[in-house]
Amino acid sequence: MTSVPEILQFSIRSARHCPAWLSGAESIDGFRRTACWKAFFGYLIDVSTQVAPRDVRGRDEPLSRWSRPATVKSPSAVSRFCNHYSWNIRAVIRAMRQHALDEFERFRRVPYSHQQRLELIVDMTSLHKEGKFEQLEPWIHRFNGVNGVHLVVLYLCHGSRRFPWSFLVWRGKGQPSPADLALKMLTRLPDELVKRHSRVPLVLADAGFCSKAFIAGVVQLGLKVSITIPSNRVTAQGHPIGQVTRQRQAITLPGLPDLRLWLYWVWLSNSGDGTRKKRYVISTLNVVPDTIRANGRKRWRIEALFKTLKSRFGLHRSGQYTKRGMLRYCCLCFLSDVLCHLETLEDASASARVWPDWRAVAQQLRRKYCGLVRLSELRKEIQTIEDVLDCVLLI
C-alpha cells in the first residue's frame, strides 16, 4: 500500500473524539464559526509542512517517492476511516460553503469591491490511478493520456477570496461531458451568491468547455462568459476562427444565431523553447483586448489551485478503493487548502505576497490550532489515569 499523506493521519485522531455534528446528531450552526472548524480541522494540513529532498539536478522530487509512512495511524486505519467509518462529509461541505458565502458577503462591504467581478472558473484535473479498483471502475477512464479519476472543479474567486465550491466526477464516454458537468455545477449555485453583485459574474473556461450547449446554458443563467476556442472552429458564415485578422470583432457561431460574441486572441509564451502560441478567446463582453488578457490571467488561478492541491496536500496520492473513500479524501484535500487560504487572509504579511509560502502557512496554522487538539487528548488521558488510580486506591 502506498504511503498516506498526514492530512489523514490526524483526521484519524479526530474520529475518536469527534463532536456530535460529525455524525449528523445536531445542527452544524456552531461549526460554522471560523475558530471552531479551523481548530477541529487545522491538523489536516500537516502534509504541507514536509520538505521535499532535492534530486541531482536540484529539483524537488515527487511526493510519492519520499513521503514517510503514517506514524499516528497505520495506512489500514486511514483506509477504514475514509471507506468504512460512519461520519458525515456533507456536513463539512455545507459548512465550507456557508463560510465561503460569509466571506464573499464580508468582502462585498469592502470599499471598491464592487469594481471587481465574481469569477466562476471551471476546469478539469486528473488523478492518476494504477492497478485494479473494482468499486471505482465506473470512474476510472483514460483522458488526455492519463488513466485515472477525472474531476471537473468549480472555483470561485472574488478579489482576494478564493474558494473551491464543488466538483463532479467525469464518468467516461457516453455519459455527461465535462462541459455538461460544469454547466450543472453553475446551475446549482445559490442565488445569494450569483445575483447579489453589482456586476454580473464572469465564467472563465478553456477550450475543453466551448460547446454550444455550455455557452448557451451560461448565457441563459444570466452570466457572462469568456472562453478559449480552437482556431479550426468556424463562424456561422463559414469563416474559420484562425483567419480573423481584427480583434474585438462580432461573430456568431453555428447553432447560436441569436447570440453575439466578440472574438479576441492572446499570445502565450512557451517557457521551453521561447516560442509564442496564439490562443483565440470568445466572450460576451464587448471590452478592450487588455481586459480579456487580464481575465485570461485570472483563469490560471485554478491551475495554481490544482498544483497546490497535488504538490502540498496530496490530492493525487489517493489510494482509496471505494467511491465513498475517494470523495471523502478529495473533500479533505480541498478543506486543507481552504484552511490555509483563510489563514493567509488573516495574516496581512502572507496575503500581501503574490504566491504564499504554503508550507510556512501550514506550519503557522499547525502551531495555532493543533496544540488545542493535543491538549484535549492529554486531558482525556489524565482523566483516564486518575480513574484507574482511584480504583486501585479503593482496592
TrEMBL record:
It comes from the Bacteria. InterPro entries: RNaseH-like_sf, Transposase_11. Keywords: Plasmid. Residues 117-334 form the Transposase IS4-like domain. One of its GO terms (molecular function) is transposase activity. One of its GO terms (biological process) is DNA transposition. This is IS4/IS5 family transposase. It comes from Deinococcus psychrotolerans. The lineage of its organism: Bacteria, Thermotogati, Deinococcota, Deinococci, Deinococcales.
